[in-house]
Amino acid sequence: MVSYLGSCLTLYMISIVAIRALANERRLQILEWLKNPTKHFPPQVDGDLVKDGVCGALIARKLRVSQPTTSEHMKILCQAGLTRPKRIKKWTFYKRDEARIRQIKRAILAKV
Predict the structure, then answer these.
(1) Which residue, among 75, 55, 57, has the nearest Cα to 66 in the 3D structure?
(2) 47-73 residue pLDDT tens
(3) What is the extent of the structural domain holding 22?
(4) What is the DSSP string of 36-96?
(5) Domain count, the chain
(6) At 107, which CATH number?
(7) Which of 10, 16, 20, 65 has a 20 to 30 A CA-CA distance from 74?
(8) Model confidence at 16, in pLDDT bands (50, 70, 90)?
(9) For the packed helices 67-79 and 25-35, what is the interaxial angle rounded to 10 degrees?
């Protein structure tokens, strides 16, 4: 019973963090782009768009914002469990965490 309550509370907290992350139009746009990276981003020198994710610099360019602004958006998406970062050389690449997104969707829908 206690472990069930703990897991429910954890899922609830994850849902709140995810909802806050999704409350920003730019972060929603990033997630949409990352759903099909080869359609929305040019090929990269390092890292495969699908396997490794999209370089933060490309996301910043497409958003038309600075890299620090993009880094903050990506930090929030990663903390919410919606994306995963991967370091290659001096760059950070971002990819959607599809399993976690499904889990968060189920948790949010269960609360509605």
Answers:
(1) 57
(2) 999 999 999 999 999 999 999 999 999
(3) 2-111
(4) SHHHHS---SSS-TTTT-EEHHHHHHHHTS-HHHHHHHHHHHHHTTSEEEEEETTEEEEEE
(5) 1
(6) 1.10.10.10
(7) 10
(8) confident
(9) 80
